[in-house]
Prior knowledge:
The structure holds two protein chains of two kinds. By secondary structure, chain A is an all-alpha fold. Chain A contains eleven helices and no strands. Chain A has one domain (77-348). The longest helix of chain A is centred in the first third of the chain and has 43 residues, at 5-47. The radius of gyration of chain A is 21 Å and the shape is globular. Chain B has one domain (2-148): NADH-ubiquinone/plastoquinone oxidoreductase chain 6, subunit NuoJ (Four Helix Bundle (Hemerythrin (Met), subunit A)). Chain B contains seven helices and two strands; from the N terminus they run ββααααααα. The longest helix of chain B has 25 residues, at 59-83. The interface between A and B is large, with 39 and 33 residues.
Amino acid sequence: MQIDTAQLTALAIEIAKILAAAVCILVFILLVVLYVVLKLRWVIARIQSRLGPNRTGPWGVLQTVADAIKLFQKEDIIPRGADRWLFTIAPAIVFIPAYVVYVVIPFGKGLTVRPLDVGVVYVTAISSISIIGIITAGWASNNKWSLLGAFRAASQLIAFEVPVILAMCIPVLLSGSLNLDVIVQKQAGSIRDWNLFNAFPMCQIACLMLLIAGLAEANTTPFDLMEAESELVAGFNTEYSGMKFALFFLAEFAEAFTLSALLVTLFLGGYNPPVHFLGGGLTGYWFSLVSLVWFLVKCWLVVVLILWIRSTFPRVRIDQLMNLSWKGLVPVGLANLLVTGAYVGLWVAR
Amino acid sequence: MAILGFEITGYQIAFVVLAGITLGSAALVVLMPNIMRAALFLGLTLLGVAGLYVLMNAAFLAAVQVMIYVGAVTTMIILAIFLSHRLMQVGFAQAIHNPVFAFAAAGVMFIFLFITVANSLWVRDICAPGPANTDVGVHAVANALLQPYVFPFELASVVLLVALVGAVVIAKEDRPGEP
Lengths: 350, 179
């Protein structure tokens, strides 16, 4: 039995790289979720004229850390009559897609883990897997509230996947590529080159559609019908506690950040600085660093917008939600796609 | 590297693992007594097929496979299970009422697929392990769909339209006094 050492070393280095990237993304998601949850509480408190978390650590920054430690200590309960095996695996089916999506997100120049050529399709495909996890969780719990939540999850997520894809088609058509990195590079220059400020009104409609439908896909408050507290106790995750609940929680906030990263990448110029003199002239590692900072700043702004929406709007009813998607967003999205196709075919391509 | 005298590449290891996942979970779909678990294993089977597409450098096809089959079709099957009345009953198991005909149908399908696969012209250079294709590109996909494969593409859309109309007809309420 002979083994080629050079090949083995190459393989080991490749595996080490993959593991390092996986750990980096996981740490990033954990930090982002800790911060977004804290920011959510601050924003809601401010909008409701209260103080919000301010005791644990300076300005209350350790509040979510304390909450996380509390979650780790909770008893892990599996209800009697539940399908134990599916009940256990469901949180993983929800979290893993939310985590794996981060592979294609361009955090900065040269800071994409794998700049896939099918990036946009990859994102929508992988995120669609988490529906199965939510339905499984609701079914396996053996609880009527969970099952109702799962029902709503299935109809809602399928309904809003269509407008999300239709909205994402617009920047793809304009840049002629499915690669998120290429889409960002096509928007290089200044703020006027960003997709949001081009192709009026197609891009603006698409951006708004992606925001609305994305909020519904990420299950945030005006559209959080699958866990509506006032109707369904806690929806599909009613019976979950401890670490398994924490995974659902983590996935939900990771998806909210993915939505803001997608909005930034597809419409707000990605990691490009808004004006040339704020880092546009840099090269090499310096530009990577500056572009990472710009990406995070833009994402932060979109996250604040999402939290603002979340703390202001009341929850919609299930029939309103379905009408919004099938009678509102889908026809508008199809018409928008048609007009953008004509625009690209008749003006841009010539 | 060589194991037991055979040259084994990483590509082959990946193929064996993915084929194992696909076939193993496909067998479990049939053998699982619990229909909900069977549906979930069907999702895993389809995911394994997507992995095989990735190995063949067909990344776009793999992504579409995950989106349509894992994301949409499996969800629809689970919804159909939900909507059936016997959902929470203990004995809600799969049943094979007619093993002879089932075996015959499966056998015919296998022979048909085997003949198709055996007679296909395989382009080995594309399937060979190596660096991924430079750019799959929207242009290549669009050209393929609207030039050589325009007939199957349009046929698929007609099938979808028929399904849509059928669903509306079934879902339509029968009000007395209306035609």
